[in-house]
Amino acid sequence: MQLALGHTCRTTGPGPEDSYPGVTFQGVSGSGKSTVGKGLAAKLGCPFFDGDDFHHDANVEKMRKGQPLNDGDRQPWLHRLADLMQQHIERGEMMVLACSALKKSYRELLLSSDRSPDRHAVAVIALQPSREELQKRLQIRSVGGSHFMPASLLESQLADQESDPDAMYFGSMDKDDIIERILKAR
Ligand SMILES: Nc1ncnc2c1ncn2[C@@H]1O[C@H](COP(=O)(O)OP(=O)(O)O)[C@@H](O)[C@H]1O
Ligand SMILES: O=C(O)[C@H](O)[C@@H](O)[C@H](O)[C@H](O)COP(=O)(O)O
């Protein structure tokens, strides 16, 4: 898989020779999308966006109550993220996104050329630590109620997850090692 990541964000006008691709991290809750995504964006010197921040309040409340989101709940959220990505790619600005995008249809919506950039302009990085590792991480993260997503939703997230033949996959690995491998894949 060729990532061809740019190392800086563009600062001048658009042009194909200057344009950099986007990167989206996908995976279930606790897979490390935000942690690894932020770390990669810092290395690349470009903005990081967390899909969590783009959910409507109703979605957040639903998850907080331990109810999984359905296709209808996720659709407008995915459209918002597709628009965000499109705006950056059209301007030739690199960005890193964390978005669970669990199902193939969600990734198609997020990356389809009519709503978002050319599929080949966006690298999909799939994070898939083991179930045991995910449970451990979510339990630690939920201590003190610092995150709205309860560990009890992990099984529904895993049930929704569909594989992506175009993605670069990582299992239970150290965050810095993942970032290094992504950068080396350029
Ligand atoms: N590669 C990793 N190794 C160990 N712990 C990690 C790793 N990536 C993330 N974590 C930890 O797991 C928890 C969930 O990570 P987070 O980035 O919030 O996942 P997500 O955004 O996919 O829900 C956090 O407490 C984070 O510190
Ligand atoms: O589609 C979904 O069901 C949600 O987007 C979900 O996958 C996401 O995981 C939550 O927003 C919690 O956020 P974290 O992924 O950061 O736990």
What does this structure look like?
Pathway: Carbohydrate acid metabolism; D-gluconate degradation. One of its GO terms (biological process) is carbohydrate metabolic process. It catalyses: D-gluconate + ATP = 6-phospho-D-gluconate + ADP + H(+). InterPro entries: P-loop_NTPase (IPR027417), Therm_gnt_kin (IPR006001). With 186 residues, the protein is of the alpha/beta class. It is 41% helix and 11% strand. It is built from 7 helices and 5 strands. It has helices at 33-44, 57-64, 71-90, 104-111, 131-142, 154-160, 175-184, and strands spanning 22-26, 48-50, 96-98, 122-127, 168-170. A 5-stranded parallel beta sheet has the order 2-3-1-4-5. Helix 1 (33-44) packs across helix 7 and helix 3 runs parallel beside helix 4. The radius of gyration is 16 Å and the shape is globular. 37% of the residues are buried. Bound molecules: adenosine-5'-diphosphate and 6-phosphogluconic acid. Residues 27, 29-36, 98, 137, 140-141, 173-175 line the site of adenosine-5'-diphosphate. 6-phosphogluconic acid binds next to helix 1.
Distance between the termini: 9 Å
pLDDT below 50 for ≥5 consecutive residues: which ranges?
6-20
Give helix and strand order, one letter per element, not per position. Answer: EHEHHEHEHHEH
> What is the subunit arrangement here?
single chain
Number of strands: 5
Q: What portion of the residues fall into strands of 2 or more residues?
A: 5-15%
Ligands present: adenosine-5'-diphosphate, 6-phosphogluconic acid
Number of helices: 7
- Indicate the percent of residues in helices: 40-55%
* Radius of gyration, whole Å: 16 Å
Arithmetic mean of pLDDT: 86
What would the principal axes of the Cα set say about the shape? globular
Structural class, judged by helices and strands?
alpha/beta
For the largest beta-sheet, the strand count, sense and barrel status come to: 5 strands, parallel
Give the neighbour order of strands across the main sheet: 2-3-1-4-5
InterPro entries: P-loop_NTPase, Therm_gnt_kin
Pfam families: AAA_33
Catalytic activity: D-gluconate + ATP = 6-phospho-D-gluconate + ADP + H(+)
GO biological process, one term: carbohydrate metabolic process
